């Protein structure tokens, strides 16, 4: 999903850079409510894990490959605002030091993988969590469904950006079919990884998982009512 330099025209790249800067500014303010002595170290670990796993590609179909985007995973573990900051750091280091995604396309990549995946992944996970039973094992299930949705949303937004300012001659219908088809499979891989990671942490330290906090609060209230 890393967009290279020159794939989108200058006006589109400038617009996505402005959108990314706005999102980062909002995330910096919102992260103050999420970060504490437990979350701050975990945020560093999440950024490191996403960075490492994004460097590992898995085969998809037709000679293509995919990698973890990590937006939904970061949001579920440390919260959406802190998740945006984690992904922004990862994408910035990748672009500056490893030429993974273009410098002029950094704003585009932050929007696609650092904002859309986080926001959509967390929103879907929370929505699913409201429907599923309030049980800790369901946290990983909600996270996995959010991960699939986040990948497909990112691919769809990319196609929208290309339709507005694509600088490479690719038929739009061909691009849409290819992006959504391949990223459906990538989304499945993302869901599996997200489920395994979240389930592992929830099983030993659910208090460290941001999405598990509503469940823990519900359990505490139920315990108090039974004790009373």
UniProtKB/TrEMBL annotation:
One Gene Ontology CC term in the entry: plasma membrane
Keyword terms of this UniProt record: Cell membrane, Membrane, Transmembrane, Transmembrane helix, Transport
Principal subcellular localisation of the protein: membrane
Pfam families per the UniProt record, alphabetical: CbiM
Signal peptide stretch: none
Membrane topology: Multi-pass membrane protein
Entry's Gene Ontology BP terms: transition metal ion transport
Compartmental location: Cell membrane
Annotated transmembrane regions: 7-28, 40-60, 72-97, 103-124, 136-162, 182-204
InterPro entries membership: CbiM/NikMN (IPR002751)
PANTHER family: METAL TRANSPORT PROTEIN HI_1621-RELATED
Protein name, entry field: Substrate-specific component NikM of nickel ECF transporter
UniProt organism field: uncultured Nocardioides sp
């Amino acid at each position: 999903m890393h967009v290279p330099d020159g794939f989108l025209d200058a006006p589109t790249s400038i617009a996505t850079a402005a959108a990314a800067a706005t999102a980062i500014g909002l995330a910096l303010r919102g992260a103050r409510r999420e970060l504490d002595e437990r979350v701050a170290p975990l945020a560093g670990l999440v950024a490191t894990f996403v960075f490492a796993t994004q460097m590992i590609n898995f085969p998809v179909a037709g000679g293509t490959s995919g990698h973890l985007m990590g937006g939904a995973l970061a949001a579920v573990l440390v919260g959406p605002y802190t998740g945006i900051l984690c992904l922004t750091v990862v994408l910035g280091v990748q672009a500056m030091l490893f030429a993974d995604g273009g410098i002029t396309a950094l704003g585009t990549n932050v929007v696609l993988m650092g904002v859309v995946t986080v926001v959509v992944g967390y929103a879907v996970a929370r929505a699913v969590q409201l429907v599923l039973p309030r049980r800790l094992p369901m946290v990983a299930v909600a996270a996995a469904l959010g991960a699939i949705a986040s990948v497909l949303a990112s691919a769809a937004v990319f196609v929208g950006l290309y339709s507005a300012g694509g600088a490479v001659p690719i038929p739009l219908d061909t691009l849409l079919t290819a992006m959504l088809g391949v990223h459906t499979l990538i989304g499945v891989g993302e869901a599996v990884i997200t489920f395994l990671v979240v389930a592992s942490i929830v099983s030993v330290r659910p208090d460290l998982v941001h999405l598990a906090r509503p469940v823990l609060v519900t359990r505490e209230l139920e315990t108090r009512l039974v004790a009373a």
